[in-house]
Write a structure and sequence with these properties.
The chain is of the alpha/beta class. The protein has 2 helices and 19 strands. It has helices spanning 10-31, 36-47; strands spanning 3-5, 56-57, 61-63, 69-71, 76-77, 81-84, 89-91, 96-97, 102-104, 106-108, 118-120, 123-125, 130-131, 136-137, 142-143, 148-149, 154-155, 163-166, 171-175. Strand 18 and strand 19 (171-175) form a beta hairpin.
């Protein structure tokens, strides 16, 4: 579902109010020394929902908003990830996210005079997906269950379950024929 946000409205003022809370928390997260319990506690504050104790997140961790980030159980997020989550990012259970992955749920309007306004499209990453190092996922994409996104891939459209994709833009490389055990 796509929505739009005009930066000159009260809705964006609410975003800025949340950013005033979350950006110092993200800075604290990335400049301090934290164990996994402390990392999950800070990210739970940022996301405003409890991060499960089975999830591991490596620092540094970046987000432009944080409040629309939803992380499942048994998730591993490697270092240097960037979550542009104003439009919503939904990460299922048993997901692996490699280092320096960027997931964006926000884009800008193409018309030059309105370019600073935002188009918000949620990103869904289903259970047991694996995003390789330096992959980029663009707004509105759905990544299917058990899918693998190769390192460096740029995902611009939905990825079917049980497939491997790679390249820029990402294209089908292989279908995973065996059932993946969890």
């Amino acid at each position: 579902m796509e929505s739009k946000m005009n930066l000159d409205t009260g809705a964006y003022d609410q975003v800025e109010a949340i950013n005033a809370i979350n950006q110092p928390l993200i800075q604290q997260l990335n400049t301090g020394i934290h164990d996994q319990v402390g990392i999950r506690q800070l990210i739970s504050q940022i996301a405003n929902e409890q991060i499960d104790e089975t999830t591991e997140i490596r620092l540094p961790f970046y987000s432009d908003f944080g409040r629309n980030l939803h992380i499942g159980k048994n998730v591993f997020i490697n270092s240097g990830t960037m979550f542009t989550d104003l439009g919503g990012i939904y990460i299922g259970d048993h997901v692996l996210i490699g280092p320096n992955v960027t997931i964006a749920s926000v884009n800008h309007v193409m018309e030059p005079r309105n370019r600073r306004n935002l188009i918000l499209k949620p990103v869904y990453i289903h259970d047991n997906a694996w995003l390789g190092a330096n992959a980029t996922v663009t707004p509105g994409v759905v990544i299917g269950e058990n899918a693998i996104v190769a390192a460096g891939a740029v995902v611009t459209r939905n990825i079917a379950a049980n497939t491997i994709v790679g390249g820029a833009p990402a294209r089908l490389i292989k279908i995973i024929k065996t059932k993946v055990e969890q």
